[in-house]
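General statements about sequence and structure are easier to judge against a single worked case. Part of our work consisted of pairing the sequence of a single chain with a tokenised description of its backbone. The amino acid sequence and the backbone structure tokens for this protein are reproduced below.

***
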Amino acid sequence: MTTAQEFYNNLRKEISFLEDERKIENCTIQLLDSQKEMLYKFFLSLSKRTDIDEKMMKNLIVDVLHKPNIENGKVYEALVYAWLERNRIQYMPQYHVAREDCFKTSSQGYDADGILKEGNIVFDVKQFGLTLPHIENLRRKLQAKIPGEYYLTISGGKNISTKDLQTNFLTQVDDVAKRIMNERNRNGTDYMFKKDGLEFRAWNLKENSTAVSFSEFDPYEWAENNELYFMYHASQFCINSPYILFCPFDNRLVRTLFKEDGYAFLAFRTLCRRIFINLVRMDDKKISDYDGKARNDISVAAAARKISAIVFMDVSEEFDYQHCRVFAFQNPNADHKIAKHCYNTLFTYNGAKIDDFMHDNY
């Protein structure tokens, strides 16, 4: 199944209520083979559930196959569902949250990505987007802007905040590309340009057989620079029930940086500690400064207390219990904590690496 149409047509053979769908183009699926297999098995499993709305399921399939690559957040949302389905965790996708139960200004509220029946825990899925995936996205965009005989690499410190990366680079791709290829930045047969701790180098492929880049990553500085990242979605945080943020990633979004479990755990834990313990003291900032859909009377501190847990999940492939790549962190200062037996059922018994900061809440 190399194209979206082939994938959909194979599903139609197994799922009776699927009809011909013109919105799905004959585009190549740019996902890992293991992810294609997980999605296919997930859709088949979902179709057998009697509590799932057929229209909702069809819309999800179309949303995934409309743009089957790493830039589509719906792909990662479906891969989180697939993990829940595979581990027999009872959940419902697409759960409506009323305005009075969240920080939205809209009278309509919003549709969360789902609810876990164990503990009635509302959840949303936010594809991992803290700096690293955006740097690779920036590299691809810049590569398309420079002459084809050059290969672009980005080196240097990768602790820059996601906001600064967006403001200073991703919104100025044309300008950055011109600066890279400016004659003043010629370095032999290559070009090199530095800005805000990042080094951009265009390697002349005719002259260089190997392009090399060196990067620095400090999890503590990275966490400090990105502690407010989830506040850009704070209008969705649930007020009256436990609330989990799932952050799926794969080995293309983060490359080899989080390949080792210990290093991944350290980086994710450091970020969560700042969110759970530092942001809950931030009474002087409002979430409306970060999320334009949020009420303007809610402090960052109040919003941070609504996050019951943050779960980082490697969705590159199906991992067994011994090699589980799920990192789950509970907020010790949450207004609505997740009961221990629920947390064990959801994560501990499925092999996740967990931390509740019980003895580190200061």
In short: The chain has eleven helices and twelve strands. The first strand starts at residue 91 and ends at 97. The radius of gyration is 22 Å.
